[in-house]
Amino acid sequence: MGRVLASVEEATTLPVTCYLGSAHSCLGGFCWHSCEKMVQKYQSPVRIYKYPFELVMAAYEKRFPTCPQIPVFLGSEVLRESRSADGAVHVVERSCRLRVEAPRLLRKIAGVEHVVFVQRNVLNWRERTLLIEAHNETFASRVMVNENCSYTVHPENEEWTCFEQSASLDIRSFFGFESALEKLAMKQYTANVKRGKEVIEHYLNELISQGTSHIPRWTPAPVREEDARSQAGPRDPGALEADRPCSAPGPAPETVITDGDKLDADYIERYLGHLTPVQESCLIQLRRWLQETHKGKIPKDEHILRFLRARDFHLDKAREMLCQSLSWRKQHQVDLLLQTWRPPALLEEFYAGGWHYQDIDGRPLYILRLGHMDTKGLMKAVGEEALLKHVLSVNEEGQKRCEGNTKQFGRPISSWTCLVDLEGLNMRHLWRPGVKALLRMIEVVEDNYPETLGRLLIVRAPRVFPVLWTLISPFINENTRQKFLIYSGSNYQGPGGLVDYLDRDVIPDFLGGDCVCNVPEGGLVPKSLYLMEEEQEHTDQLRQWRETYQSASVLRGAPHEVAVEILEGESVITWDFDILRGDVVFSLYHSKQVPKPGPQEPGAGAGGQLTDKGWVLGVDYSRVEAPLVCREGESIQGSHVTRWPGIYLLQWQMHSPPGNVACSLPGVEDVLTALHSPGPKCKLLYYYEVLASEDFRGSMSSLESCTSGFSQLSATTSSSSGHSHSSPLVSR
Question: How far is the C-alpha of 316 from the C-alpha of 355, rounded, in Å?
């Protein structure tokens, strides 16, 4: 029984294989485990024909001597052939000519119109196996292609036949076109590999339609005594080899794997989804590498696949990312998290997130009411590490729910949907330690749970959201950002909104649906629940918080001022400050000239005054934010989208009662305040940051590119340029 190419799949790779000597240059660019000399390797999953081995072999043989389904096959010539004495083993070695299908320029440079491959088939009827080796003769000094394939009986059903294939491509040199050859080969392979299985199935159907649905298994013929004596004499070396099926050359060592290592194509389609041959090969190679080298728990196939997708199926990059994640999981005992982690009662009450049925595609649905969540209060009450651990437990639970939904709905589900409600989001959510903690959580999740987010639906996004988005979006992977859908106002209602992604009977009641949602509503965490400094487990966290802010004292008549230079309009100035003592008035001014502090009065240096007392408001500088009275104990966050370049001054000055404005003498309240507050009258901690115009406009563009109702929010934000988004709140 002959074979033109090394496998069913490969039969369709002929258009590719004729690539200048690569019977599988189609494999170039494959999954690719790439070595220094551009060596590429490919490993197929186990493909199953639900027909007996003998019938599959009959279909396989029908492809010869010609096959209309493989027009690039020009013909073959038997070089050597031998059979064992009992006829159980048949060895055929052929030379096959294939037409070159490549760009004319490449064919002209190569100087050939067809290429030659040598293949060796060992068919063992007794063991019911067909082992195939193939390599190129044309351009063998420049390009080496080696392929090994096998047809075997299914280990659990002897009426089915399994097919496996592995190959390697080593492009040593090819007239300077090595990269082009590799890319061209890969493109052709992925376009044609599916056709290979169809060829065999075509001939199987043809046999059945002709009435051949069963072929008896091989049985040894009785051997007469004189025949046995004659067979003991000298024999042809090829025949001797054929008589030793167990030692007959078959797949290369890399293809000999245990049953537990194998993935069959049906399993992949059912539990992992449709994968291209390139992707299947990457998964199998990375999985096998883990089984051979990793000492701990081997991740599930869907988890390995997520890392491959995160690195666009670049095998080396995915392996590096996965290894780092496995080390992290072991260090932090993440595999035991769902069994060991019990969130504090405070988290269960004030963390406004939870699971809620599934979306329209069967993905688990997680709802997060971020606008109702007091992130600052939670961090001060339970600490950043507890919040991070809770986020990790959500991701672990999400993976578990994906597996359950895959079984429940009978199709692969590897990611979940997150619905984020931003109603109530304001500048308090820009508390810098909270933002830094959020960025850290994003980094941990991106590194260790890639491709787990299928879709992110953000609803009721307020005007302040673009500022928060500008801060966090650079830390979010581009593939993840493309899954964001953002709606402002009530745009999430009606066609094009949530109904496109959630069944109506799943939409939560607080978003106008009929479904009761049991996700906690969040709310402000009482200060009485805050951890005392001596209770904080992580002193580094306290130190980082202190280092984030600068302290300042404000004296009567000597305000504290900070100059911020803005080079172009539509930059964003953000601020965050806590009033520790006394009451202050916060203002924001714009000046075209750089202030030059004059001589300071004794004690005035503590106030940090920059403006010249001779400056005239409305002439030398202008107010761009209305004065905001801030009381002792309050925490203030705000932002301002600048209109003009120049110098902007953040100013804090001591607040005086209204009556003092018209009276030059101190009132009774002033005297009492001075008596009870000796020394500096006011004290505060502050932080400010400038978001460059380019970054802010870029974040707006990325938001507008989301398929959503964000255009209304965009217009609102743009028209509000020059206005603050400040919101005074009791210090959390």
Answer: 35
